[in-house]
Amino acid sequence: MVLMSDDDRERVAAAIAAAERNTSGEIVAVIAADSGSYLHTPFLWAALAALAVPWPLIHWTWWPIQHIYLLQIGVFAVLCVLLMYEPLRLALVPRSVKHARAHRRAVEQFLVQNLHTTQGRTGVLIFVSSAERFAETLADAAIHQKVPEDT
To answer: Are 149 and 131 in contact (CB under 8 A)?
Structure first.
């Protein structure tokens, strides 16, 4: 999956270089396809649905419990397979969970890129996670002292 064309990548690099010439900040941009696989989500939703299957059947049918149990297992398996489809999987994850995961990934990238060790503590990370539709700018201590939080 291509997130940016080569032309876009060059434009971003040029914009970062221009911004770095006018400031003491060291700027790094990271664009991630996603911040997590969320593979637990299909299992969670399938398990919840499968747990709900037997209740109406036990009370309103004369099916043997073994058949209801087999249906419950079938519902779990089918939902697991269907919900593995990435757009569905991402749609089932609450926005707060996606944003928390993306924020954690942004902080990890801030540390991995060694922006916390820049001279004068002027590192800035621009982090974008496409699947979560999340963007965040992280700045080191010296930037926080000079630039208001809302900026």
So the answer is: no
Identify the bridge partners of residue 27 per DSSP, sorted by sequence position.
124
Q: Is 5 exposed, middle or buried (0-12, 13-18, 19+ CB in 10 A)?
A: exposed
- pTM for the whole structure: 0.82
Q: CA 48, CA 42: separation in Å to the nearest integer?
A: 10
Over residues 86-144, the pLDDT tens digits come to 999 999 999 999 999 999 999 999 999 989 888 889 899 999 999 999 999 999 988 88
Phi-psi region of 64 (alpha: psi -120 to 50; beta: other; left: phi over 0): beta
List, in order of start, the domains of the chain with CATH numbers: 6-37+95-146 (3.10.310.50), 40-92 (no CATH)
Measured between alpha carbons, how far is 83 from 92 in angstroms, rounded to an integer? 9
